[in-house]
Design brief:
By secondary structure, the protein is an alpha/beta fold. Helix content is 49%, strand content 12%. The chain has 16 helices and eleven strands. Strands 7-6-5-8-9-10 form a six-stranded parallel beta sheet. Strands 2-3-1-4-11 form a five-stranded antiparallel beta sheet, sandwiched between helices. Helix 2 packs across helix 3, helix 7 packs antiparallel against helix 14 and helix 14 runs antiparallel to helix 15. The longest helix is centred in the last third of the chain and has 57 residues. The two termini are 30 Å apart. The C terminus is likely disordered.
């Protein structure tokens, strides 16, 4: 049993590549339905944000598990894995756990220490639970990572004056204009990013704000919080000539505004400047609009180039946070390794108890004859106590060594000596036989394995941005 993460983010891929494997809600449901049919993947949580798509999975075999996740990407997102292989990264076990802790604490974000990712991780966890994809391991991992992120936020100043991506974009525009508060603003979308945008605009005294979304009631509910006006989404294109700033963050799988449409808008505006902030992945606004005169587009790629994450104070706090994460990772690893021991102990207890019952019943029948209920209970308790006394020391030693490197040797030895069938007991302790079946294309071990670094599969290359 292994924990595997497959991912892509703002450090390893451009926005154009990231949006190809961004998961809308319907894609997430489809992905989970696909993975439920795969025996090599037993648990899974998909985290998809504007800056990253990551799949956390519990797998029986690392190579088969990776193949299954890549096959799912191809089936659900229509992406050939070979086209994005250099942009993907893979971690497993300790490194996968450490990576998740860093992501959730904001240490792997475009803006160091940002807190929005914590809510996104919690939401991904809850969605996976709703889809029946979470069991003991990922429950334990994600509960611990949320707790660790909260600890980082409260015990360090990593998120002191933390800036959201939307704030960064809006602040850039505000500094260019003398009367920013007089701008006519259109916010497209009614999610978390739109909420943060409205919150910031409201704090800066911007009054003329319109909100639109495909779901009118959601837009209305959000607009009412900030005294904004709700507009029906079908009237979106009619609104464009009358606004000075557009902030778009929807989950639409296609472009909402094309270059030709914006060219017509600019003609109607007599080429008056318009600012567009597109923080959606996939993009809402055609990137080609940036070539039009007086159209100033800020998308995720543009923002990545201008956000400075090298603040000295934040880097000091990040070092403290990483030390906390190292400790939390080791604690989780110790717990995780006990899960490998538990099924073997259960199998051992089960087998020895079956033998005890069989021998006891035969002895009573052949040697002792008829016993009353009280006498049978006495014999039963005596034989149980003998078996428990024999097993006590081996079981205690197995638990004590669960987190040591030799643990697998001990587990395999115990299985061999007592002829315990592997996977007789699953991690929840039931006696269900767990079968393993290959899924997806067969990929040779050498293609994904580094013999010099056995805790790493695949490649991680930084094609864009800085770490």
């Amino acid at each position: 049993m292994h924990i595997l993460v497959l991912g892509i983010n703002h450090k390893t891929a451009t926005l154009e590549i990231r949006e190809k494997i961004a998961f809308a809600e319907n894609h997430i449901r489809q992905a989970y339905d696909t993975l439920k049919k795969v025996h090599s993947v037993t648990q899974c949580i998909i985290l998809s944000t504007c800056n990253r798509t990551e799949i956390y999975a519990v797998v029986e075999d690392l190579v088969e598990g990776k193949n299954s996740l890549l096959s799912m990407l191809q089936e659900v997102k229509g992406v050939n894995p070979t086209e994005i292989e250099t942009n993907l990264y893979y971690y497993f076990n300790r490194e996968a756990v450490s990576h998740l802790f860093q992501v959730t604490a904001g240490l792997d974000s475009m803006i160091l220490g940002e807190t929005q990712i914590l809510g996104q991780v919690k939401n991904a966890y809850e969605k996976a639970i709703e889809n029946g994809m979470v069991n003991k391991v990922l429950h334990g991992l994600f509960q611990r990572t949320v707790s660790c992120a909260k600890k980082v936020q409260t015990e360090t100043e990593i998120n002191c004056n933390s800036l959201s991506i939307s704030y960064t974009a809006l602040d850039m525009i505000r500094k260019k204009l003398d009367h920013f508060e007089e701008m006519r603003v259109l916010v497209i979308g009614a999610g978390k990013m739109s909420h943060l945008t409205l919150q910031q605009l409201h704090s800066w005294g911007v009054k003329n704000i319109k909100v639109t979304s495909r779901t009118y009631q959601r837009a209305k509910k959000l607009a009412e919080l900030f005294d904004a006006i709700t507009i029906d989404f079908k009237n979106l294109k009619d609104l464009l000539p009358g606004v000075d700033l557009i902030v778009s963050s929807t989950g639409a799988p296609h472009l909402l505004i094309h270059k030709e449409e914006m060219a017509a808008v600019m003609k109607e505006r007599n080429q008056k400047p318009i600012f567009i902030v597109d923080i959606a992945v996939p993009r809402d606004i055609d990137p080609e609009v940036a070539v039009l005169d007086n159209v100033f587009l800020y998308d995720m790629d543009t923002l990545q180039q201008v956000i400075n994450t090298n603040h000295k104070e934040r880097k000091k706090e990040a070092a403290m946070a990483r030390n906390m994460i190292i400790a939390e990772t080791e604690q989780f690893q110790a717990w995780f390794k006990t899960l490998e021991v538990a099924p073997v102990i259960k199998a051992l207890r089960h087998k020895t108890d079956l033998i005890r019952q069989e021998k006891t019943d035969r002895y009573i029948k052949n040697k002792l004859g008829q016993l009353n209920k009280k006498e049978k209970e006495a014999v039963d308790n005596l034989t149980k106590s003998i078996v428990n006394a024999i097993l006590k020391e081996p079981i205690l030693k197995m638990k004590d060594t669960a987190s040591q490197e030799e643990a697998k040797i001990f587990i395999d030895s115990l299985r061999f000596l007592f002829d315990l069938q592997k996977n007789t007991f699953n991690e929840e302790g039931s006696n269900e036989i767990i079968e393993n079946k290959k899924q997806g294309p067969v990929i040779e071990k050498g293609e994904y394995w580094s013999e010099n670094r056995p805790d790493y599969i695949g490649t991680r290359k930084s094609n864009t941005g800085s770490s």
